[in-house]
Design brief:
Elements lengths: L14 E5 L16 H14 L4 E5 L17 H11 L4 E2 L6 H8 L6 E3 L7 H5 L2 H8 L4 E4 L14 H5 L5 E3 L1 H15 L5 E5 L4 H14 L2 E4 L3 H8 L3 E2 L9 H11 L3 E2 L3 E5 L10 E5 L2 E2 L4 E5 L1 H12 L3 E5 L12 H12 L3 E4 L3 H8 L8 E2 L3 H8 L5 H4 L5
Parallel strand pairs: 1-2, 1-5, 2-4, 3-4, 5-6, 7-8, 7-15, 8-10, 9-13, 15-16, 16-17
Antiparallel strand pairs: 11-12, 11-14
Helix pairs in contact: 1-2, 8-10, 9-10, 11-12
């Protein structure tokens, strides 16, 4: 699945249309509260700029209605931040495919950068509209996809634009190349033992992933609130824990299919007030014995110890979803134990985006794992075994 990268095409004097992920969090004053997504795009951006390409950047931000400009979703703060990082002016178009975008793209010189306004201000982006995509495609000589977080979507900028640019170079940026390398290698040729750690709230979010990974992993470890649905499927007591009662039969099927591969918690750390975890009554109980009035908030210490032993022997690990309410001590203990076990081992470790990425970052383990995915939904879809049209369309290496 290796794709040609932006470094492998001649960009000098050519216009490069690059899909990036500048979906950054903004505060009420339109200041960026976390600029990581802009910083992570820098290697691909610099690859074009430093070699004399003319760079057109496009992204979405937030969830505008698709009926035109909405100030709170403008990409202007991201363009400003990028200019500061590059130490040079970055032009900001006031529209996406309108007169100002055309003028600013037309005025680009070698090494110059323009950011188009939010793609989702146009309804054609979410609809995958060929006409909208055609206007974007007409701006450039080369297409580059460096937005892994939206690779599983069929938005115009991801699929219809590269379709419209058939015959021109269509390549991946550094971020997408890295994601494809880690995630496809993990699935197709993992070092063994291959261990998957799956947490989070809902079994329904991870059904296809669990099914797929049970077929290729040596062990699948379950944590987070979804463990309580499995507990219910085994006839356990779950107190006031978050459960999906309509998924109990499915959980029974997964338990039957998983056999010795599927590992469920043996104990649970629970509390009686989610809103006041620090001050509430807490106790550790055997799995399936959560008393009424209490809810499971983390895997217990025996589970953490068992999981750590399995993790330390692993050669490949994929982790998607925390083991408990990692934001609130002491219910971060299970997630911390898993992260520590990964750090102590010598595996290739791939952390799915979203809460798992936030957990390893917050707990200080981000430098001790092999790869943190930039796209939670996309990494899950890849672990399910899905193919992405947005990637399949691009030139083979």
């Amino acid at each position: 699945m290796a794709k040609k990268t932006i470094d492998q095409v001649d960009v000098a004097g050519k216009k490069v249309l690059m899909r990036v992920d500048f979906n950054v969090p903004l505060d009420e004053n339109q200041n960026i509260s976390d600029d990581r997504r802009v910083r992570m795009a820098l290697p691909s951006i610099k690859s074009v700029v430093d070699r004399g390409g003319q760079l057109i950047l496009m992204s979405h931000l937030g969830r505008p209605e698709g009926k035109g400009f909405e100030a709170k979703y403008s990409l202007a703060p991201a363009a400003k931040a990028l200019g500061e990082m590059l130490g040079k002016p970055v032009a900001m178009a006031s529209d996406t495919v309108g007169d100002d975008a055309a003028a600013k793209v037309g005025a680009l010189t070698d090494g110059g950068v323009v950011v188009l306004e939010n793609l989702r201000f146009n309804s054609g982006e979410k609809k995958g509209c060929a006409e909208f995509a055609g206007k974007l495609a007409a701006m450039a000589d080369i297409y580059c996809n460096d937005a892994f977080g939206t690779c599983h979507r069929s938005d115009a900028s991801m699929v219809a634009v590269p379709e419209a640019m058939a015959g021109k170079p269509r390549v991946v940026g550094h971020l997408v190349a890295r994601e494809i390398q880690y995630l496809t290698d993990a699935i197709s040729n993992p070092g063994r033992p291959f261990v998957a750690i799956l947490g989070g709230a809902k079994v329904s979010d991870k059904i296809n992933v669990i099914n797929n990974l049970l077929g290729i992993c040596d062990a699948v470890l379950i944590g987070g609130a979804m463990a309580y649905t499995f507990s219910l499927a085994q006839g356990g007591k779950v107190g006031d824990s978050l459960v999906e009662k309509d998924k109990v039969e499915l959980a029974k099927e997964l338990i039957a299919k998983g056999g010795d591969k599927l590992h469920l918690p043996v104990d649970t750390h629970c509390g009686d007030d989610f809103g006041n975890i620090a001050g509430c009554n807490k106790k550790v109980v055997a799995a399936g014995e959560i008393p009424d009035g209490m809810e499971g908030l983390d895997i217990g210490p025996e589970t953490a110890k068992l999981y750590a032993e399995i993790i330390k022997k692993a050669k490949t690990i994929v982790w998607n979803g925390p083991m408990g309410v990692f934001e609130k001590p002491p219910m971060d203990a299970g997630t911390k134990a898993v992260a520590q076990a990964i750090a102590d081992g010598d595996s290739i470790s791939i952390i799915g985006g979203g809460d798992s990425a936030a957990a390893v970052d917050q707990l200080g383990f981000v430098d001790q794992v092999s790869h943190v995915s930039t796209g939670g939904g996309a990494s899950l879809a890849m672990l399910e075994g899905q193919r992405f049209a947005a990637v399949d369309l691009l030139d083979e290496a």
